[in-house]
Amino acid sequence: VNGKIEIPVVVNVLYRNAAGNLSQAQIQSQIDVLNKDFNAQNTDYNQVPALFSGVKANVGISFVLDQVIRKATTKTSWGTRDAIKKSKQGGLDPTSPSTKLNFWVGTIGGGILGYAQFPGGSSATDGVVIDPLYFGVYSNSSSSYPYNLGRTATHEVGHWLNLRHIWGDATCGNDLVSDTPSHNAPNYGVPTYPHYSTCSGAPVEMTMNYMDYTDDRGMYMFSAGQKARMDAIFASGGARFSFAQ
Ligand code: ARG
Ligand code: ZN
Ligand code: CA
């Protein structure tokens, strides 16, 4: 990797009404959250408990808004089968997906906040989909609460950069990261610290990790092992090497 990774971001807005046609400021608020969360500049970073202070990480990847593409639609929900990413299905094809991170902002439906494609998939569908209610920062009194702080995109970009859920998508599952403790299952809300796992060794769970399922205000760190996993895909031969040039 030649120095610092800076990822150009294309935001594809598929809007059905004014509320879904996010303002430039709302879009920029999401870029700002990504830059804070991936550079240990989030104001809640210092809330990481002492138990995890040795493994909390500054990932060191930055994001710059490249362009916003807007398209009106009559579709009320896009689902999770990538129609939103295809012009032929009423959506928008990605722009330069091997060198730019594409977001699609449109109503997903089914209670889904967002979803991402892992590295190694088809470039035609590469990127992250986020519901407009959860893209960028909204006030606590908005209908976006408690997912109103832009952390859905932080979590989904974590997947896009090869991170698994911290509970490994199984009871006491494996997230392929050695410095994150074993979690029984996803955590929701804002768990009281310390929350003990009943997995082998009964570790304290890292519920404040972005790859758990807590409320936005309950998640504020990546680990060093997660950073290493993300860094690896930008190395020569890695699935996102084209972004490191
Ligand atoms: N893929 C998850 C979902 O849609 C996203 C969870 C994001 N969590 C959050 N606190 N924003 O259910
Ligand atoms: Zn997830
Ligand atoms: Ca682990």
From TrEMBL:
Keywords, sorted A to Z: Disulfide bond, Hydrolase, Metal-binding, Metalloprotease, Protease, Signal, Zinc
Coiled-coil intervals, chain numbering: none
Keyword Protease recorded: yes
Top-rank lineage group of the source organism: Bacteria
One GO MF term: metal ion binding
Annotated GO biological process: proteolysis
Domain Peptidase M43 pregnancy-associated plasma-A: 114-233
Annotated signal peptide: none
Entry similarity comment: Belongs to the peptidase M43B family.
Protein name, as recorded: Peptidase M43 pregnancy-associated plasma-A domain-containing protein
Residues of the full protein shown: 74 to 318 of 319
